[in-house]
Amino acid sequence: MSSKSLIFAIAASSVLSWGCGEQPAPAQEIVDNLIQAGFPSNDIQVVGERVYVGRDAEVTLEASREMLKAADSSEEQYRTTNLVGAAVTKVCVNGSAFTGVFSTALDLAIQNYTERSLRFTMARTPSTGCSFTIQANIDPNMNGGVAGFPANGLPFGSITIGGRLSQYGVDVIEHVITHELGHTIGFRHSDFYNRTISCGTGGNEGDAGVGAIHIPGTPTTASVGGSIMNSCFRSAETGEFTGSDVTALLALYPPAAGSRLSFRTATGNFLVAENGGGTFVGADRTAIGDWERFGYVDLNGGELLNNDLINLRAANGQFVVAENGGGGVVNANRATAQGWETFRFINLEGRSRFQAGDRVALQASNGQYVVAENGGGGNASGAVNANRSAIGAWETFVLFFQ
Ligand SMILES: [Zn+2]
After folding, report:
1. C-alpha 228 – ligand 1 centre gap (Å)
2. How many A from CA of 32 to the centre of ligand 1?
3. Mean pLDDT of 114-130
4. Which of 64, 131, 151, 165 has the smallest CB count inside 10 Å?
5. How many Cβ atoms from other residues are within 10 Å of residue 379's Cβ?
6. What gap in Å lies between CA 189 and CA 210, rounded to an integer?
7. What's the CA-to-centroid distance between 62 and ligand 1, angstroms?
């Protein structure tokens, strides 16, 4: 058997960050560190003086020690006692050290946060109006990431991303950056109580001096692939938040007042994402509650203006979709936003800015308009469609900012 074949034992997971370590001799210390860091022992191979883990990544003694420096753990959606305060409205990330695939992944990770209409926005520097700036570093010897937790109402001031992640590609790097940014705003590991869940080995991170408070509305138990905040990542990660991740984000940092939209139909009813999302959009509500408030993402950023393309998000974080891009029913059950989830937001008052009370229309990606059948009031799926070729009374909505 060649040494190369030994190296090709694929790691099911790698560790994002860890607890503290011990100190034996070189190769053995590296192995011990890796095991303590959560790598399954059968994914670790020693060839001569060198130690490899999954996907033939060599781990140096220095790197293995680095892995043990920062503590990280998980359970399904837990937060630290400290969170980012309301004074922080824009978190900036200085990623000037990031090039190539790391730069692309950083942009995607930031987008994971900006597209959720959180209480604070996030942007990469240079940017104006930053409340706080996180320094993003690359450690060429690391195969994971490290960050810290909020203090004094501010995010943690830095994240460090492992240069060795380049072996996995952009989605895994996006995953790790999104994960580390999650720590900076107060997310513990989803499997903090038992790192074995995502790492295959490892114990309970415990309180870690920062608290581990379960976030309402999310599961109390973790699962492999169940959260971007799991302790260890897999080579198959997509880089995207899971449903419970979004629930957790919105629970901790809900959109600021005035940043959600409600739509009143011709008969005086309001559009509703039934159950707060996960099923159809109706038009039969007489008052505005959470289910009748839609978060939005302005795809060109900046101020929401006439004819901007937007995504609309139900209370549970899922996106509104015109099925097939229009021509049929409107639902609120998509985890991600692409073409069918994109609407042109039209101000029928003939001016650029939107104000409460404006008459507005929504155009699906195929050019057809959203309609409340019969002007609203129909209590069933199919009461709101995206299949009209012109704007009349039923396709006109009065806008409320909530
Ligand atoms: Zn972590």
Report:
1. 9
2. 20
3. 90
4. 151
5. 12
6. 12
7. 19
